Amino acid sequence: MVLIALLIALSVERLYHSPAFLHWAFYMERWQRWSSARLQDEKWESEPLQLVRLLIPAVGVGLLVVLLDNLMVTFIVSIFALLLAFNCEPARQNYKEYLKAANRGDEPSIIEHQQALTEFAGRHQPHQISDSLIWINYRQYIAVMFYFVLFGSFGALVYATLRYAETQQREEESVSLWQQLLWFADWVPVRLAAFGLLIVGHFSRALPEWLQQSLNPQADPDKLLFNVASKAEDNPQHPDDRTEHAACQLRLMRRQQIFWVCAIAVLTLTGWVS
Q1: What residue segments make up the domains of the chain, in order of their start?
Q2: pTM for the full model?
Q3: What are the backbone angles phi and psi of residue 96, rounded to the nearest 5°?
Q4: How far is it, in rounded angstroms, from Cα 205 to Cα 231?
Q5: CB 233 within 8 A of CB 252
Protein backbone atom coordinates (compact mmCIF):
# COMPACT_ATOMS: atom_id res chain seq x y z
CA MET A 1 0.00 0.00 0.00
CA VAL A 2 2.89 2.36 0.77
CA LEU A 3 4.40 1.84 -2.66
CA ILE A 4 1.10 2.22 -4.53
CA ALA A 5 0.18 5.40 -2.63
CA LEU A 6 3.65 6.79 -3.32
CA LEU A 7 3.48 6.04 -7.05
CA ILE A 8 0.00 7.55 -7.39
CA ALA A 9 0.96 10.71 -5.50
CA LEU A 10 4.18 11.20 -7.47
CA SER A 11 2.37 10.66 -10.78
CA VAL A 12 -0.47 13.05 -9.98
CA GLU A 13 1.89 15.72 -8.62
CA ARG A 14 4.08 15.58 -11.73
CA LEU A 15 1.44 15.21 -14.43
CA TYR A 16 -1.23 17.65 -13.30
CA HIS A 17 -1.22 21.29 -12.28
CA SER A 18 -1.57 21.38 -8.49
CA PRO A 19 -3.95 24.05 -7.16
CA ALA A 20 -3.05 26.08 -4.09
CA PHE A 21 -5.27 24.00 -1.79
CA LEU A 22 -3.11 20.93 -2.49
CA HIS A 23 -0.18 22.47 -0.64
CA TRP A 24 0.33 21.83 3.07
CA ALA A 25 1.39 25.47 3.57
CA PHE A 26 -2.10 26.53 2.39
CA TYR A 27 -3.66 24.83 5.41
CA MET A 28 -0.88 25.72 7.83
CA GLU A 29 -1.27 29.43 7.09
CA ARG A 30 -5.00 29.27 7.77
CA TRP A 31 -4.55 27.13 10.85
CA GLN A 32 -1.94 29.55 12.18
CA ARG A 33 -4.24 32.55 11.69
CA TRP A 34 -7.24 30.78 13.22
CA SER A 35 -5.36 29.41 16.24
CA SER A 36 -3.48 32.67 16.84
CA ALA A 37 -6.76 34.57 17.01
CA ARG A 38 -8.06 32.20 19.68
CA LEU A 39 -4.89 31.50 21.67
CA GLN A 40 -3.77 34.99 22.56
CA ASP A 41 -2.25 34.13 25.94
CA GLU A 42 1.43 35.12 26.10
CA LYS A 43 2.44 31.58 27.07
CA TRP A 44 1.52 30.44 23.54
CA GLU A 45 4.22 32.72 22.16
CA SER A 46 6.98 30.44 23.48
CA GLU A 47 8.58 28.24 20.83
CA PRO A 48 7.72 24.89 22.49
CA LEU A 49 4.01 25.75 22.63
CA GLN A 50 4.13 27.18 19.12
CA LEU A 51 5.51 23.81 18.06
CA VAL A 52 2.63 22.02 19.77
CA ARG A 53 0.12 24.34 18.11
CA LEU A 54 1.60 23.90 14.63
CA LEU A 55 1.74 20.11 14.95
CA ILE A 56 -1.93 19.74 15.87
CA PRO A 57 -3.16 19.33 12.23
CA ALA A 58 -0.59 16.61 11.48
CA VAL A 59 -1.36 14.86 14.77
CA GLY A 60 -5.07 15.12 13.98
CA VAL A 61 -4.57 13.36 10.65
CA GLY A 62 -2.52 10.65 12.34
CA LEU A 63 -5.19 10.10 15.01
CA LEU A 64 -7.92 9.98 12.35
CA VAL A 65 -6.11 7.16 10.54
CA VAL A 66 -5.49 5.23 13.76
CA LEU A 67 -9.02 5.61 15.17
CA LEU A 68 -10.81 4.71 11.93
CA ASP A 69 -8.45 1.77 11.36
CA ASN A 70 -9.72 1.25 7.82
CA LEU A 71 -7.43 0.17 5.00
CA MET A 72 -9.21 2.22 2.33
CA VAL A 73 -9.30 5.36 4.50
CA THR A 74 -5.60 4.95 5.29
CA PHE A 75 -4.83 4.53 1.59
CA ILE A 76 -6.79 7.63 0.53
CA VAL A 77 -5.43 9.76 3.37
CA SER A 78 -1.89 8.62 2.49
CA ILE A 79 -2.27 9.79 -1.12
CA PHE A 80 -3.63 13.19 -0.11
CA ALA A 81 -1.02 13.61 2.63
CA LEU A 82 1.74 12.92 0.11
CA LEU A 83 0.24 15.34 -2.41
CA LEU A 84 0.09 18.04 0.27
CA ALA A 85 3.67 17.39 1.39
CA PHE A 86 5.14 16.97 -2.12
CA ASN A 87 3.54 19.94 -3.86
CA CYS A 88 6.37 21.61 -5.73
CA GLU A 89 4.29 23.54 -8.26
CA PRO A 90 5.49 27.06 -7.26
CA ALA A 91 9.14 26.02 -7.55
CA ARG A 92 8.49 24.27 -10.86
CA GLN A 93 6.87 27.37 -12.33
CA ASN A 94 9.66 29.64 -11.10
CA TYR A 95 12.28 27.32 -12.58
CA LYS A 96 10.54 27.37 -15.97
CA GLU A 97 10.40 31.16 -15.88
CA TYR A 98 14.06 31.27 -14.86
CA LEU A 99 15.02 29.19 -17.91
CA LYS A 100 13.02 31.46 -20.21
CA ALA A 101 14.61 34.57 -18.69
CA ALA A 102 18.10 33.09 -18.97
CA ASN A 103 17.56 32.20 -22.63
CA ARG A 104 16.54 35.75 -23.49
CA GLY A 105 19.16 37.35 -21.20
CA ASP A 106 16.66 39.12 -18.95
CA GLU A 107 18.85 39.72 -15.88
CA PRO A 108 16.20 41.31 -13.57
CA SER A 109 13.82 38.43 -14.24
CA ILE A 110 16.64 35.92 -13.67
CA ILE A 111 17.38 37.43 -10.26
CA GLU A 112 13.67 37.56 -9.37
CA HIS A 113 13.01 33.88 -10.09
CA GLN A 114 16.31 32.77 -8.58
CA GLN A 115 15.37 34.58 -5.36
CA ALA A 116 11.91 32.98 -5.43
CA LEU A 117 13.51 29.53 -5.65
CA THR A 118 15.88 30.41 -2.81
CA GLU A 119 12.95 31.41 -0.60
CA PHE A 120 10.95 28.31 -1.54
CA ALA A 121 13.93 26.23 -0.45
CA GLY A 122 13.69 27.88 2.97
CA ARG A 123 16.97 29.74 2.56
CA HIS A 124 17.44 33.44 3.18
CA GLN A 125 20.92 34.05 1.77
CA PRO A 126 21.50 34.07 -2.01
CA HIS A 127 22.65 30.69 -3.33
CA GLN A 128 23.41 29.20 -6.70
CA ILE A 129 20.23 28.08 -8.37
CA SER A 130 21.59 24.53 -8.62
CA ASP A 131 21.91 24.40 -4.82
CA SER A 132 18.35 25.64 -4.39
CA LEU A 133 17.06 23.00 -6.81
CA ILE A 134 18.95 20.23 -5.01
CA TRP A 135 17.62 21.32 -1.62
CA ILE A 136 14.04 21.73 -2.89
CA ASN A 137 14.14 18.29 -4.46
CA TYR A 138 15.46 16.74 -1.26
CA ARG A 139 13.10 18.57 1.11
CA GLN A 140 9.97 18.20 -1.03
CA TYR A 141 10.44 14.59 -2.13
CA ILE A 142 13.24 12.48 -0.65
CA ALA A 143 12.80 13.46 3.02
CA VAL A 144 9.01 13.23 2.75
CA MET A 145 9.29 9.74 1.21
CA PHE A 146 11.62 8.67 4.02
CA TYR A 147 9.25 9.71 6.80
CA PHE A 148 6.21 8.40 4.92
CA VAL A 149 7.75 4.94 4.68
CA LEU A 150 8.61 5.01 8.40
CA PHE A 151 5.51 6.66 9.90
CA GLY A 152 2.91 6.92 7.15
CA SER A 153 0.91 10.08 6.45
CA PHE A 154 1.62 11.34 9.99
CA GLY A 155 5.38 11.31 9.39
CA ALA A 156 5.09 13.02 6.00
CA LEU A 157 2.92 15.82 7.40
CA VAL A 158 5.04 16.36 10.51
CA TYR A 159 8.10 16.84 8.31
CA ALA A 160 6.13 19.18 6.03
CA THR A 161 5.06 21.15 9.12
CA LEU A 162 8.65 21.58 10.33
CA ARG A 163 9.65 22.58 6.81
CA TYR A 164 6.88 25.18 6.69
CA ALA A 165 7.82 26.57 10.12
CA GLU A 166 11.44 27.03 9.07
CA THR A 167 10.48 29.01 5.97
CA GLN A 168 8.66 31.49 8.22
CA GLN A 169 11.87 32.40 10.07
CA ARG A 170 13.36 35.80 9.33
CA GLU A 171 16.97 36.13 8.23
CA GLU A 172 18.04 38.07 11.32
CA GLU A 173 16.71 35.55 13.81
CA SER A 174 19.09 33.24 15.64
CA VAL A 175 18.90 29.48 15.23
CA SER A 176 15.31 28.59 16.13
CA LEU A 177 13.72 25.50 17.59
CA TRP A 178 12.36 24.64 14.13
CA GLN A 179 15.83 24.74 12.59
CA GLN A 180 17.23 22.56 15.36
CA LEU A 181 14.45 20.01 14.94
CA LEU A 182 14.86 19.99 11.17
CA TRP A 183 18.62 19.51 11.58
CA PHE A 184 17.93 16.32 13.55
CA ALA A 185 15.10 15.29 11.22
CA ASP A 186 17.42 15.64 8.21
CA TRP A 187 20.37 13.81 9.78
CA VAL A 188 19.53 10.33 8.48
CA PRO A 189 17.56 11.03 5.27
CA VAL A 190 20.12 13.51 3.92
CA ARG A 191 22.86 10.87 4.24
CA LEU A 192 20.65 8.36 2.47
CA ALA A 193 19.89 10.95 -0.21
CA ALA A 194 23.61 11.60 -0.67
CA PHE A 195 24.19 7.84 -0.89
CA GLY A 196 21.56 7.68 -3.63
CA LEU A 197 23.58 10.26 -5.55
CA LEU A 198 26.55 7.88 -5.47
CA ILE A 199 24.48 5.12 -7.02
CA VAL A 200 23.05 7.20 -9.86
CA GLY A 201 26.11 9.43 -10.38
CA HIS A 202 29.90 9.07 -10.34
CA PHE A 203 30.31 6.53 -7.55
CA SER A 204 34.11 6.47 -7.34
CA ARG A 205 34.46 10.24 -7.49
CA ALA A 206 31.72 11.00 -4.96
CA LEU A 207 32.38 8.15 -2.49
CA PRO A 208 35.30 9.81 -0.65
CA GLU A 209 33.26 13.00 -0.23
CA TRP A 210 30.25 11.04 1.03
CA LEU A 211 32.34 9.13 3.56
CA GLN A 212 34.05 12.27 4.80
CA GLN A 213 30.81 14.20 5.17
CA SER A 214 28.60 11.38 6.44
CA LEU A 215 31.04 10.28 9.14
CA ASN A 216 31.06 13.82 10.50
CA PRO A 217 28.06 13.93 12.88
CA GLN A 218 28.13 17.75 12.94
CA ALA A 219 28.05 18.20 9.16
CA ASP A 220 25.37 20.58 7.92
CA PRO A 221 22.77 18.59 5.94
CA ASP A 222 22.63 21.07 3.06
CA LYS A 223 26.39 21.34 2.64
CA LEU A 224 26.73 17.57 2.80
CA LEU A 225 24.24 17.15 -0.02
CA PHE A 226 25.68 19.97 -2.14
CA ASN A 227 29.25 18.66 -1.83
CA VAL A 228 28.31 15.09 -2.75
CA ALA A 229 26.11 16.26 -5.63
CA SER A 230 28.93 18.37 -7.06
CA LYS A 231 31.14 15.26 -7.17
CA ALA A 232 28.46 12.87 -8.40
CA GLU A 233 27.40 14.80 -11.50
CA ASP A 234 29.25 15.45 -14.74
CA ASN A 235 30.75 18.89 -15.19
CA PRO A 236 28.78 21.04 -17.65
CA GLN A 237 30.10 20.96 -21.20
CA HIS A 238 29.47 24.70 -21.52
CA PRO A 239 30.48 26.39 -18.23
CA ASP A 240 29.29 29.79 -19.49
CA ASP A 241 25.74 28.49 -19.89
CA ARG A 242 24.09 29.45 -16.58
CA THR A 243 21.25 26.96 -17.11
CA GLU A 244 23.27 23.84 -17.92
CA HIS A 245 24.74 23.23 -14.46
CA ALA A 246 21.33 23.58 -12.82
CA ALA A 247 19.80 21.22 -15.40
CA CYS A 248 22.57 18.64 -14.77
CA GLN A 249 21.97 18.73 -11.00
CA LEU A 250 18.22 18.51 -11.47
CA ARG A 251 18.59 15.43 -13.69
CA LEU A 252 20.81 13.88 -11.03
CA MET A 253 18.19 14.43 -8.33
CA ARG A 254 15.44 13.01 -10.54
CA ARG A 255 17.49 9.87 -11.15
CA GLN A 256 17.90 9.60 -7.41
CA GLN A 257 14.13 9.77 -6.92
CA ILE A 258 13.71 6.86 -9.32
CA PHE A 259 16.40 4.93 -7.43
CA TRP A 260 14.64 5.36 -4.09
CA VAL A 261 11.24 4.45 -5.53
CA CYS A 262 12.84 1.26 -6.88
CA ALA A 263 14.44 0.63 -3.48
CA ILE A 264 11.03 0.99 -1.78
CA ALA A 265 9.58 -1.41 -4.38
CA VAL A 266 12.24 -4.00 -3.50
CA LEU A 267 11.56 -3.52 0.23
CA THR A 268 7.84 -3.99 -0.47
CA LEU A 269 8.40 -7.19 -2.45
CA THR A 270 10.63 -8.61 0.28
CA GLY A 271 8.11 -7.78 3.00
CA TRP A 272 10.07 -5.06 4.79
CA VAL A 273 7.52 -2.40 3.80
CA SER A 274 3.80 -3.14 3.70
Answers
A1: 2-269
A2: 0.92
A3: -60, -45
A4: 6
A5: yes
